[in-house]
C-alpha cells in the first residue's frame, strides 16, 4: 500500500533547520497550560502502587467512561476510550467499511489530512465534497454526493482547517442524509470547547443509531501528548469497535486516563473560558494583521486555525518554504487539505502568533 506520510513533519523539520528565527504555526499542539488538576494527577500517579502501572481495562477505565457518558448523556456501554480522537476516527471509519454497505467515504474539501489518509488505508474510495466560501458545509452538495455506495460521511465541527462551526440545522440535515443512504455519520468534535459562535451542536443531540461521535482531551485540556480520546458508538456497533481497539492497541495508557479523569472532575468552567478567550484574542490579532497584508481568509468561528490565501502567492510547498526563509513564519501548504493549493493554514498555537502576523503584514507577497 502507498501510505501517505503527512506533510506536517516535513514542514516542521524545514522550519527547524532554517538558518533564522522561525515562528512555527504548522501543527495544532496547544502551547497553553493544562488544568492544574491534570498536573496534580500525573504527579501523584508516580507514587502509586505497582498495580497502577499495569493494563487498564481495554476499553478504558470504567470511571472515566462513566464520567464521559454522564456528560454526553449516553449509556456508558457506548463509550470506548481510545488513543486520541485519531484512533476514534479510525475505529469509526473501520466500522463503516466492515458493514459492507458501501465503499465510499465522503469528506469535505478542504479536509483534515488524516481523514483521507486513514480512509484510503482502510480501502475506502474517498470523495471530497467542496464546502461553501465561508467554510460551511454545503448540505445540498453532500446530499447529491451521497449514494448507496456511501459507507460513511465524516464531518468535523468546529472545523480544522476552516474554523467553521456547524449549527443544529446542519447537523440534523447531515444525520438525515446519512440515514437516507444507509451510511454512518462520523462526527469529529475534537474542538467542541473552542466554539466562539455559540452555535455548535453535537451530533449526539439527535437520537440516531447510525451516528458515531469522536472526541478527545488533546485540545480541550491542551494535552495532545497524553493520548486520551473516546468514541461514542451506537450499541449495535460498539462490540466490534471494542474488539478492534483491543487487537490493535491492547488498551490505552492508564496514567493519562487517571489524570484526565481527575481533571474532568476538578476543573471548572473558568479554565475552558480562559483558553477560549486567549484564542479568540489571538485570532482577532492575527486576522487584523492578515487584513493589513491584504490576505483573504475564512473567518474562524471555532478551533484555532486560520485558512488564508495571498493574491499571487499560491500556498505551494515551495512558497511555504519561502515564507520560512524570507518571513520567518512556518505554516501548512494548502494542497495538504484537499484541492486548496492556493491556500495556507496557520495554527495559532504559540504566544508569538501576533508577531508572526506582523511578519506576514510586512512581507512583500
Ligand atoms: C480534526 C481533528 N481530529 C482529530 C485530531 C487528532 O486528535 P487527537 O490528538 O485526539 O488524536 C486532530 C488533531 O489535530 C484534528 O485536528
Automatic annotation (TrEMBL):
GO molecular function: heme binding; peroxidase activity; pyridoxal phosphate binding; transaminase activity
Plant heme peroxidase family profile domain residues: 1-249
UniProt key word Signal: no
Keyword check for Transferase: yes
Cofactor(s) the record lists: pyridoxal 5'-phosphate
Source domain of life: Archaea
Family matches, as Pfam families: Aminotran_1_2
EC number: 2.6.1.-
Protein's GO biological process: amino acid metabolic process; response to oxidative stress
Transmembrane regions: none
Keywords: Aminotransferase, Pyridoxal phosphate, Transferase
Binding partners and assembly: Homodimer.
Family: Belongs to the class-I pyridoxal-phosphate-dependent aminotransferase family.
Protein name: Aminotransferase
Annotated organism of origin: Haloplanus vescus
Amino acid at each position: 500500500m502507498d501510505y501517505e506520510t503527512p506533510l506536517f513533519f516535513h514542514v516542521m523539520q524545514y522550519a527547524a533547520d532554517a538558518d533564522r528565527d522561525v515562528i512555527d504555526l504548522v501543527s495544532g499542539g496547544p502551547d497553553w497550560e493544562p488544568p492544574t488538576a491534570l498536573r496534580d494527577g500525573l504527579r501523584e500517579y508516580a507514587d502509586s502502587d505497582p498495580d497502577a502501572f499495569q493494563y487498564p481495562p481495554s476499553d478504558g477505565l470504567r470511571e472515566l467512561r462513566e464520567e464521559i457518558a454522564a456528560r454526553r448523556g449516553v449509556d456508558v456501554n457506548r463509550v470506548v476510550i481510545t488513543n486520541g480522537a485519531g484512533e476514534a476516527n479510525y475505529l469509526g471509519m473501520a466500522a463503516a467499511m466492515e458493514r459492507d454497505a458501501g465503499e465510499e467515504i465522503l469528506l469535505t474539501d478542504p479536509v483534515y489530512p488524516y481523514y483521507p489518509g486513514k480512509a484510503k488505508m482502510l480501502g475506502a474510495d474517498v470523495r471530497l465534497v467542496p464546502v461553501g466560501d465561508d467554510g460551511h458545509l454545503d448540505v445540498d452538495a453532500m446530499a447529491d454526493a451521497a449514494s448507496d455506495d456511501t459507507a460513511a460521511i465524516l464531518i468535523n465541527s468546529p472545523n480544522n482547517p476552516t474554523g467553521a462551526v456547524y449549527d443544529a440545522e446542519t447537523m440534523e440535515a447531515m444525520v438525515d442524509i446519512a440515514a437516507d443512504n444507509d451510511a454512518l455519520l462520523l462526527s469529529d468534535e475534537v474542538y467542541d470547547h473552542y466554539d466562539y459562535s455559540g452555535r455548535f451542536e453535537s451530533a449526539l443531540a439527535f437520537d440516531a443509531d447510525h451516528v458515531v461521535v469522536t472526541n478527545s482531551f488533546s485540545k480541550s485540556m491542551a494535552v495532545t501528548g497524553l493520548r486520551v480520546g473516546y468514541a461514542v458508538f451506537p450499541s449495535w456497533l460498539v462490540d466490534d469497535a471494542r474488539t478492534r481497539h483491543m487487537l490493535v492497541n491492547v488498551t490505552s495508557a492508564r496514567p493519562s486516563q487517571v489524570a484526565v479523569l481527575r481533571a474532568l472532575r476538578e476543573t471548572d468552567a473558568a479554565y475552558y473560558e480562559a483558553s477560549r478567550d486567549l484564542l479568540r484574542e489571538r485570532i482577532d490579532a492575527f486576522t487584523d494583521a492578515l487584513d493589513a497584508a491584504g490576505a483573504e481568509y475564512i473567518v474562524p468561528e471555532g478551533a484555532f486555525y486560520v485558512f488564508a490565501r495571498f493574491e499571487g502567492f499560491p500556498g505551494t510547498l515551495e512558497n511555504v518554504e519561502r515564507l520560512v526563509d524570507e518571513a520567518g513564519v512556518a505554516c501548512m501548504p494548502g494542497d495538504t487539505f484537499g484541492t486548496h493549493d492556493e491556500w495556507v493554514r496557520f495554527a495559532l498555537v504559540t504566544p508569538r502568533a501576533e508577531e508572526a502576523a506582523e511578519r506576514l503584514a510586512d512581507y512583500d507577497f
